Amino acid sequence: MFTIPELNQQLDAEIQHCLNNKTKPLGSLGRLESIALQICRIQQTLKPCLSQPQMLVFAADHGVVAEGISLFPQAVTQQMVLNFIQGGAAINCFCRQHGIEFRVVNAGVNGELPEDSILIDASIAKGTQNFVTQPAMTMEQCEQALTKGAELVDDRHKRGANVIGFGEMGIGNTTSAAALMAAALGLSAAECAGRGTGLEKTAVEHKAKVIQKALKRIKGEKLSPQQMLAELGGFEIVMMCGAMLKAAELKMLVLVDGFIATSAALMASKMHPNFIDYAVFCHKSKEQGHKKMLKAMGVEALLDLDMRLGEGSGVAVAYPLLVSAVTFVNEMASFDSAGVDNA
Ligand SMILES: O=C(O)c1ccc[n+]([C@@H]2O[C@H](COP(=O)([O-])O)[C@@H](O)[C@H]2O)c1
Ligand SMILES: Cc1cc2nc[nH]c2cc1C
């Protein structure tokens, strides 16, 4: 469905030479240097740029809330989408702060939403089924969500964007993300379930049991990543997965938020291993499974701020670091041009 080529390494030596010859001790800009290298590789240039940065927040509801796995009622998904439209959520503030264009995508919210220029209606259904007893969605719905996500990114790309952040909103979606993580990585439910919006210890244990039941239901079947998404996913997670894959196919820089967005990235990497080369994991969430998921993918997050909000908030606060990475490549003098002695 997607074609994601391995990054071309032909320019690597030249890019590395350019970074090494900036007026600084070798490697002294640390992670900014690896980010700069990644962006130059993706864009195949020594003059990288970030144009028309976008943030897509995918919202959807989850049938598994019937199992009592979230602290908050399902209605909060719809209410927060209205808050996003009005510009009052954390992600709205951070996107305004950094000049990131913001859209919220209705991937499958269980409630009515108004027409608005900030809201993109891509609803597959009004929430998933409870995946403890049946597949969360049909394979057809899963395919639809992947395709719709890809179309949305294609549209952003046509408007001139080469960098795109992914966030989400959906009461119950840490249960779906943890279930996908457990299925895809062969881990136990207890290793993947966390506090979500703030559950206490016994509630987290209950959540792990709920996930364990779902894993038992699908046990023994050798599932493809797409089948796992249909069995355990949420519409926002599947749509994000399709969107992330399309962004990589278009050689855009893919900015991944916290635990739930990373579960979409994990499934994307299972479908297309080269996907990881296009992704920046912007922060490490406080959700306990997140660091294990990042480790399993062999990646490290940029920031560790004890955040666990979602909405793409970790992407937006990390964005200025990406701007710094690109700026030093473009603007910093070299030892030669500045007449500074190198070691
Ligand atoms: O992004 C994260 O790492 C993250 C960690 C914990 C909670 N969240 C947010 O909280 C909501 C899901 O929490 P829950 O407990 O209802 O599964 C959903 O809207 C997410 O955006 C997000
Ligand atoms: C209030 C609230 C805001 C959120 N933003 C993302 N997930 C959320 C969950 C809740 C409960």
Automatic annotation (TrEMBL):
It holds the Pfam family DBI_PRT. Pathway: Nucleoside biosynthesis; alpha-ribazole biosynthesis; alpha-ribazole from 5,6-dimethylbenzimidazole: step 1/2. It catalyses: 5,6-dimethylbenzimidazole + nicotinate beta-D-ribonucleotide = alpha-ribazole 5'-phosphate + nicotinate + H(+). The keyword Endoplasmic reticulum does not apply. Keywords: Cobalamin biosynthesis, Glycosyltransferase, Transferase. It comes from the Bacteria. The keyword Glycosyltransferase applies. Coiled coil: none annotated. Its EC number is 2.4.2.21. The active site is at E311. GO terms for molecular function: nicotinate-nucleotide-dimethylbenzimidazole phosphoribosyltransferase activity. It is an enzyme of class 2 (transferase). Belongs to the CobT family. Catalyzes the synthesis of alpha-ribazole-5'-phosphate from nicotinate mononucleotide (NAMN) and 5,6-dimethylbenzimidazole (DMB). This is Nicotinate-nucleotide--dimethylbenzimidazole phosphoribosyltransferase.
